[in-house]
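Sample entry follows:

:::
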Amino acid sequence: TTVSIMTRKPGNAVLEVTNLAGQKLRITEKKNLSAGSHRFIIDVGELHPGIYFYTVKFNGESITNKMIVI
């Protein structure tokens, strides 16, 4: 799974993958990103089928989306 982000200014980004119980399963950090388009790759091969959430944090803001692994 690929998560794309667009940044307007430089900064650090963090992607967290959690399960339905809220347990953090994976954390990926990208430091010193320039303004522009960037992406995170989530290897779902290690995840069991089910519903997960991923959160992208960037410069004090965050957004969470649902991800379904089949």
